[in-house]
TrEMBL record:
The lineage of its organism: Bacteria, Pseudomonadati, Pseudomonadota, Betaproteobacteria, Burkholderiales. One of its GO terms (molecular function) is DNA binding. This is LacI family DNA-binding transcriptional regulator. It comes from the Bacteria. Keywords: DNA-binding, Transcription, Transcription regulation. SMART domains: HTH_LACI. Residues 9-63 form the HTH lacI-type domain. SUPFAM superfamilies: lambda repressor-like DNA-binding domains, Periplasmic binding protein-like I.
Length: 342
């Protein structure tokens, strides 16, 4: 007995079942605000009964859009970027725009390849971290005229669209707080600064605050490590092996600070009695550490939701603000205290 291969329903099938024209079906699916609710419900009911799926390619050609936004993150193995992806995706989904993500491993060449791959696959806009992209990628995006927002950075004079904060000013604020507590031997446990302008700016902020107070950050008190607990523990051990040892350590993010806290406990140092530790980001775990971590709070969800709004506005033909600054705050907890008297 022959079996007839089941064919996918077409827009004509939907129109026939709903008793409308194919043009009406198209308007319901692509411009729902232009159709009466009753008519829309009739068409969507037919779509559901038939299991009709619009042809993405045809829709993209008609709208000259794919309804997708791309984002390249350094990694997803970090809670701060997981929160960023969630915020970005939820905001875009509210407007029926889909998110495609890629990771670069903090590598400039990889970021360029991944971003170009996303553009090749038809994304309508891009979100990138920081301003430290390969010059060829920035030229490529400018030539394409593709909306792009740079997140987690704020430089008022930069012509690129951005949503973020002044990383140097943030760590400078944390460092001034430590100086006010009497600390003079302040060290920095930083992320790898190569191809990461946020990490470099955070180091510069510590330097600037110390210099203003007549202090310095000598080479031995600056250690760069990848953002992992094991690397952070090793870096903290290296800093505390110096003589005289630092009395305070500013960390490039909370992951590094978590590792520093754990290593301090492992080698018998009291925090903050022997050494004060400051993080950056205010991840959920920061308030649950023992001792609870003093850190710079970054409004991650609001920042990435705003970044989505800037891209959506650009795609709608509007002219969004070029630079948007979000506020970061110093959250003082138990991991910092006055410098030990010697």
């Amino acid at each position: 007995m022959e079996t007839r291969e089941k064919t996918a329903p077409t827009i004509n099938d939907v129109a026939q079942l709903a008793g409308v024209s194919t043009a009406t079906v198209s308007r319901v699916l692509n411009q729902p605000d232009s159709v009466r609710d009753a008519l829309s419900k009739k068409v969507l009911g037919a779509v559901a009964r038939l299991g009709y799926v619009p042809h993405a390619g045809a829709r993209a050609l008609m709208l000259r859009r794919t309804g997708t936004v791309g984002a390249v993150f350094p990694t997803v193995d970090n809670a701060i970027f997981a929160k960023a992806i969630d915020a970005l995706q939820r905001r875009l989904a509210h407007f029926d725009v889909h998110l495609l993500i890629a990771t670069s491993g903090y590598d400039q060449e990889s970021e360029m390849r991944q971003a170009m791959n996303l553009v090749t696959r038809g994304v309508d806009a891009l979100a990138l971290c920081g301003f430290s992209q390969h010059p060829d990628l920035l030229l490529f995006l400018r030539k394409r005229g593709l909306p792009c927002v740079h997140v987690m950075v704020h430089e008022p004079d930069n012509e690129l669209m951005s949503v973020g904060f002044d990383n140097a000013a943030a760590t400078a604020r944390a460092t001034r707080y430590l100086i006010d507590l009497g600390h003079r031997r302040v060290a920095m446990l930083a992320g790898i600064t190569q191809s990461n302008d946020r990490a470099l700016q955070r180091v510069n902020g510590v330097r600037q605050a110390l210099a203003t107070a007549g202090l310095e950050l000598p080479p031995a008190r600056l250690v760069e490590r990848p953002y992992s607990l094991s690397e952070a523990r090793e870096g903290f051990r290296q800093l505390m092996a110096q003589r005289p040892a630092p009395t305070a350590v500013v960390c490039g993010n909370d992951v590094l600070a978590f590792g520093a806290l754990r290593e301090a406990q492992s080698i018998g140092l009291d925090v903050p009695g022997d050494v004060s530790i400051v993080g950056f980001d205010d991840l959920d775990m920061a308030s649950h550490m023992q001792p609870a971590l003093t850190t710079m709070r970054v409004p991650t969800e609001a920042m990435w939701s705003t970044a989505a709004d800037r891209l959506l506005a650009s795609l709608a033909g509007e002219t969004p603000p070029r630079n948007t600054e979000v506020e970061v705050a110093l959250v003082v907890r138990e991991s910092t205290g006055p410098a030990k008297k010697e």
